[in-house]
Design a protein that fits this description.
single chain; 98 residues; mainly alpha; 81% helix
């Protein structure tokens, strides 16, 4: 169940991140880095908050003092960033083709 919640928050965060990316990109075109940081950071933040807010099978929340928590957060960040970049690339290809 926890995995599905994290996956759902990554997908919702990616959709919100792409929307924020598009809004920032359209209003301030030269600031592409700002758009990528805000758009890419949105799914990472939502995924990490979901992970930290849900309980494990043993009923405990993750502890920031545990190295396994940090590896899980690193994996969530990598998955969110990869999903964001893939969807942005796909979106640009669809828009470019018309």
């Amino acid at each position: 169940m926890r995995f599905l919640l994290i996956l759902g928050s990554l997908i919702a965060g990616t959709i919100a991140g792409i929307y924020l990316f598009g809004m920032i990109w359209r209003t301030t075109a030269p600031e592409g880095t700002t758009a990528m940081v805000v758009g890419g950071g949105t799914p990472v933040l939502l995924g990490a908050l979901t992970f930290l807010g849900t309980k494990a099978a043993d009923g405990q929340r993750p502890s920031l003092g545990n190295p396994r928590t940090w590896f899980a957060l690193l994996g969530i960040a990598a998955a969110a960033a990869g999903l964001f970049v893939l969807l942005i690339a796909a979106l640009f290809l669809v828009v470019q083709r018309g």
